[in-house]
Amino acid sequence: MSLIVKIGKKGKAAVKKLLSPVETHRVSYTRRIERVKTDRRILAMTFDDGPADIPCSPDLFGGRSLTDVILDVLEEFGAKGTFDVIGDTSENYPDKAGAPGTAAWGGIRYDHYPDIGKDASGGAVHNDRLMRRMLEGGHQITNHGYRHIIFGKKPFVYGKRVYLGSFDAAVEDLARLHRFMSEEYGYEVTMGRPPHYVDRVQGGLSSYDVYDTMGYQYMAASFDGAGWLPSTAGDAQTAFEDEVRAMTDPVKAALEKDPDFFCGQIIFQKDGCNMAKRTPVAVGLRRQLEILSGYGYRVVTVEELMRESPFTDVGRDDPDFGLFESLQRSHAIVFSDNRLRPDVQMKNGELAMLLCPKESLLERRRRAASDKKATLYRCAMEICSEKGLMPAGLREDGAVSGLPEGLFGRTEDLTRRSVFRAYRTDR
Question: What separation in angstroms does the CA of 177 have from each of 47, 94, 420?
Answer without folding.
Answer: 17, 22, 36
